[in-house]
């Protein structure tokens, strides 16, 4: 198993042994997570792909890997094209590809704990048109040939205190119970890890960079709940925190418990609960209501305590980032700084706060052409020096008890070309346009996406990722349901209390990447004479935007005023946390245009 070719051969041999003609390998876990524990990194083990979203299909004579526009370059660098076809999503899909490539009469396996019911239906229909069959497996064949597969984490759960959560777990369960009664339902299945963490005010260390614990839960209409988690992960403090209304069971007992709802009405989320959960409920005689997990929306709409905590986290994180920006502005032009060293230095500045629990994702530290790889992940093999005359893109964030941060800055090392400055300024203009937006209550994120792209579009340019994603409260750095995107979501009405990113970009393959990202809070907006309730964004992230990369003549008076006001606020919030050379640098970096 020393090469990815060996692993592919081993999987094909296993498929022959279990009488399958193919198998689908998604990058997720049994909780439909975006970021997964090491034990669930089947796609990475099989192919070498290190991105956070993708799927693969293995047939006897061909294999394909499916990624979206964020990973177009990365997948070609990490996955051997001699053995894998590269397929782009949403231009195609696993189901569509199978419908064209599966042999007539073929049996294609899938793990029902790793797919939604909708995916199973679509793939099954596509195969049926070819006279082929989709087959659920009891044992994942990748696991059968993965000799050193890690065990799931046994890290202890920790209590997320009410002073950070702003609402007790009992209050959250009662709100869910009231919702269930209104829906005439008896219980709701919670399988998304961030929903469990939020509902029970617990956190964990089972997924790198995301403070969640591997568990399932069933919340009942009487406000009691059953929590399914490995016994060794629970200590007395957590037991006391959960209280008598939460019954704790072994995680291994969850599937069997789904058979106990005969004649009862159970809510299960078709986007977040895997097909196996629906199948078990149906087999047990439950009446299923396919509705969104009742934790999703209240989790997304932050309460006043969470908002205050997030602002405190942003203030300290902005100071750490500003210290880093001063350091790189001083050291990178001298030479000798590379991507790995810069990422390590930024993490060190965050650790100096004394409050960092973890990074919120692996830092994207991209110099020159590596910055054009949207979700680039630096490693020894790809590590580049940060050179004069280039752009350096750093996308990073921290996990603090009181908030989760995510911020991107693009830094001109030396003097950028006129093209680089112009395209940086187009991205900045889009960032400002979105940040200044006012919109009626009920507006969807997808309706705002064009504000950030308009200036790039005017010059025939674009970027292949969404403009904004939701962010959790000491939880997932990517949190739904809100998004600012024209594809893959963006149809959730924005509500006061939601936190999103504002991150337009531009990427020139082989040369450089640009992205400017702040987090923003949806807030009510008082508009004189307005005939509708209006909303807008409050910017939460505070760190300088590189003045040396801006073609100032391209900015309107309003845009210049926005940037000057933003930098004045950065100086006000971050300045008192700095001293000496870093403070002097910040004052210059935040000076009016």
TrEMBL record:
Residues 7-138 form the Creatinase N-terminal domain. One of its GO terms (molecular function) is metal ion binding. Belongs to the peptidase M24B family. Residues 533-593 form the Peptidase M24 C-terminal domain. The gene is pepP. This is Xaa-Pro aminopeptidase. Pfam families: Creatinase_N, Creatinase_N_2, Peptidase_M24, Peptidase_M24_C. Keywords: Aminopeptidase, Hydrolase, Metal-binding, Protease. GO terms for cellular component: cytoplasm. It comes from the Bacteria. Residues 310-523 form the Peptidase M24 domain.
